[in-house]
Amino acid sequence: MIKVGDALPAATLMEYSEVEGNGCSIGPNPVDVAKASAGKTIALFALPGAFTPTCSAKHVPGYVTHFDDLKKAGVDEIWCVSVNDAFVMGAWARDQHTTGKVRMLGDGSADFTKATGLTLDLTARGMGLRSNRYSMLIKDGKVATLNVEGPGKFEVSDAETMLAQAKG
């Protein structure tokens, strides 16, 4: 499992863009994790699935609400990673009003999630291999803090915990 001090794994996530800009075309665009995190402080949080109850009601809204506070604490970008395709993440971004605040990044084949060692097997619930719920503060591509939730919990990967860590 990835740990504090480790570099993020080499992977490509996918981000759905509804408008052209900054070299991104409309539709799914690749995001090279190493390049996108270089020289930046990123609050990354991952969760089991788009449109799922805790993720939609608490996890994403917390980061949207605390966007300004996280920016003031030195966070350059906020990333939400889920084992969903870019189209689903784009629809969820619209639903959650994340534009300009949280980058909704799809890990459709779970390559990033597998490389972090933070997988969650929800096959018995009809969801297949997913991401565990966690957050990490990343500085220049390296893990500065890591907060992994216990099974069924939502206690340490929330925006308030990340904000305290970013300020610290």
For the secondary structure, the number of strands is: 9
Based on secondary structure, the structural category is alpha+beta
What order do the strands of the largest sheet run in, or round the barrel if closed?
A: 2-1-5-4-3-8-9
Name given to the CATH architecture:
3-Layer(aba) Sandwich
Oligomeric form: single chain
DSSP strand content: 25-35%
Shape: globular
Mean model confidence by pLDDT? 94
**Termini separation:** 24 Å
Count of individual helical segments: 6
- The unreliable regions are none
**CATH class placement:** Alpha Beta
List the helices and strands and how they pair.
Elements: E1 12-17, E2 27-32, H1 33-37, E3 41-47, H2 53-65, H3 67-72, E4 77-82, H4 86-96, E5 102-106, H5 111-116, E6 119-122, E7 128-131, E8 134-139, E9 142-148, H6 159-167
Parallel strand pairs: 3-4, 4-5
Antiparallel strand pairs: 1-2, 1-5, 3-8, 6-7, 8-9
Task: Kindly list the characteristics that best describe this protein.
168 residues; alpha+beta; Glutaredoxin; 30% strand; globular
Kindly describe this structure.
This protein has 168 residues and is of the alpha+beta class. It has 6 helices and 9 strands; from the N terminus they run ββαβααβαβαββββα. It has helices at 33-37, 53-65, 67-72, 86-96, 111-116, 159-167, and strands spanning 12-17, 27-32, 41-47, 77-82, 102-106, 119-122, 128-131, 134-139, 142-148. The strands form 2 sheets. Strands 2-1-5-4-3-8-9 form a 7-stranded mixed sheet. Strand 6 (119-122) and strand 7 (128-131) form a beta hairpin. The radius of gyration is 14 Å and the shape is globular. The two termini are 24 Å apart. The relative contact order is 0.23.
